[in-house]
Design brief:
This protein is mainly alpha-helical and about 140 residues long. It has two helices and three strands, in the order E-E-E-H-H.
């Protein structure tokens, strides 16, 4: 719930604990989260936790389903990030007044970020998939496979 919904005038809290008013502004290197009375409640969950399944599987079947979901999510999300990174970088470079030169620079930076982020998401999907499969195997009762 946003701080404005609770009647709190503090607005948004950055990760350093400072509060800004009104609409959150994107500042390089700074993550903004909804302000709250509880300091720990303002932390945003990691993207991997939101995308990839880490719920304890009941058995091998559920572990395999979770593993497949994680691998597919990692692969598709990584591919999307590799495509979207250069596009977003080029648009931001153009909007910052760099014209064609800024767009090319933004494209290059976005390509680098897309490749690194996309590869990381793919590896993370495969790793959590293997982990979930192992947990499902461990949680399977003997004779229930």
């Amino acid at each position: 719930m946003l701080a404005e919904d609770k009647g709190d005038e503090s607005g948004w809290r950055d990760t350093a604990g400072e509060v800004s008013d009104g609409v959150p502004l994107q500042v390089p290197g700074q993550v903004l989260a909804p302000a709250s009375d509880d300091d720990d409640a303002g932390e945003m969950p990691a993207i991997a936790e939101m995308l990839l399944s880490t719920k304890k599987p009941k058995n091998l079947f559920h572990g395999a389903l979770s593993a497949g979901s994680n691998v597919l999510t990692g692969a598709l999300g990584g591919a999307a990030l590799m495509v979207a990174g250069p596009v977003v970088g080029a648009r931001q470079g153009m909007q910052e007044g760099g014209g064609v030169t800024g767009a090319c620079k933004g494209f290059g930076l976005g390509l680098f970020a897309g490749i690194v982020g996309g590869a990381s998401l793919m590896v993370g999907g495969a790793a959590t998939g293997a982990y979930q499969l192992g947990r499902g195997l461990y949680n399977t009762k003997v004779g229930k496979i």
